[in-house]
Amino acid sequence: MARKKKKWMQKAFGKHPGKLHRQLHVPEGEKIPASKMEKAAHSRNPELRKEAALARTGKRFGGKRGGRKHRRRSGRR
Fold it and tell me: What is the DSSP letter of 31?
């Protein structure tokens, strides 16, 4: 029986496009500086912390920006 692929990233990133840029006062076309991203990750605001964590996760997976490749280990199931 084949497993269904879950599209959690598309659902998570599609909800509020540009929200993190607006909260950090960075124009949407520009890259968010690492210092601002670090501050957002340790913010008192829980929404801002979640958005920053999601952005870090998305950066790892790559896509158009070309992050590292995500692979499964062959021995685990």
Answer: P
CA 12 to the chain's CA centroid: 9
User: CB–CB of 49/40 below 8 Å?
Assistant: yes
Q: Are 50 and 8 in contact (CB under 8 A)?
A: no
Q: Where are the domains of the chain?
A: 32-58
| Long-range Cβ pairs for the range 39-42 (8 Å, 24+) | none
d(CA 12, CA 19) in angstroms, rounded, equals 12
Residue ranges with strand state E in 6-72: none
| pTM (global) more than 0.70 | no
5: pLDDT strictly greater than 90: no
Helices (H), the chain: 8-14, 19-24, 34-41, 46-61
